[in-house]
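Data availability (excerpt). The following record was deposited with the supplementary files.
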Amino acid sequence: MELGLQGRTAFISGSTQGIGYAVASVLAAEGVRVTVNGRDAARVEAAVARLRREHPGSDASGLVADFADPVQVEGLLGALGPVDVLVNNVGLFGLAEFESVDDAEWRRYFEVNVMSGVRLSRQLLGGMLERGWGRVIFVGSESGVNVPADMIHYGVTKAAMIALGNGLAKRTRGTAVTVNTILGGPTYSDGVAAAVEAIAEQQEIPAETMKEAIIGQNRTTLLERFLAPDEIAHLVAYLASPLASATNGAAIRADGGVLTGML
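Predicted structure:
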């Protein structure tokens, strides 16, 4: 399907692998000039090269910055030109007992998961409003609605992300700029795969068995499997397109049926 994104520009935070890279790839296939981001220069260069290889003729570039470091973020913001589509994807996640998460770790999670979106949106939303078109998309999580007991620090930051997107959308009233959040479900990204494989190795069982056990613990998933990064990326691409012009201020589920409420 032609999404009408040819020639647009996009910046995707945290996009050298996983969901972020999948988003960059889908947008590049639609003719979007994409800028990827990561903490490591070699991985950013590799992601850019991969995009150009997978999508011949695509216009891909990269910017290196660790969103846990405000100084590096300032440098990235200074290097960013006008952007039509901002995808706030970068994020930290991890299992931890509530009592074991100290103030420094809480601050680190907020710095990356929340303040990245604050800083990027503050930098880019005004230009979208002035030009009369734009998209801000937050890649959130169902954990921001149903906060897990063993990931409270993560879930709270994802709840804050939903609130941020909701507030920013109100600033776009009467324009062709939209702000939306995707509530993703358990996704088998590179980071999740590495964690699953490490646990499986410790327990001396196959990684596939561990995957099935983890999903089996979640009795509400209707898919009964992990999502693939592409399944989130395709929804991002739709929301980025003119086809989604009537969707604004929304928190849209791509959770595989994990959330059980009607709304």
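Summary of structural features: The beta strands are 9-12, 33-38, 60-64, 85-88, 134-141, 177-184, 251-254.
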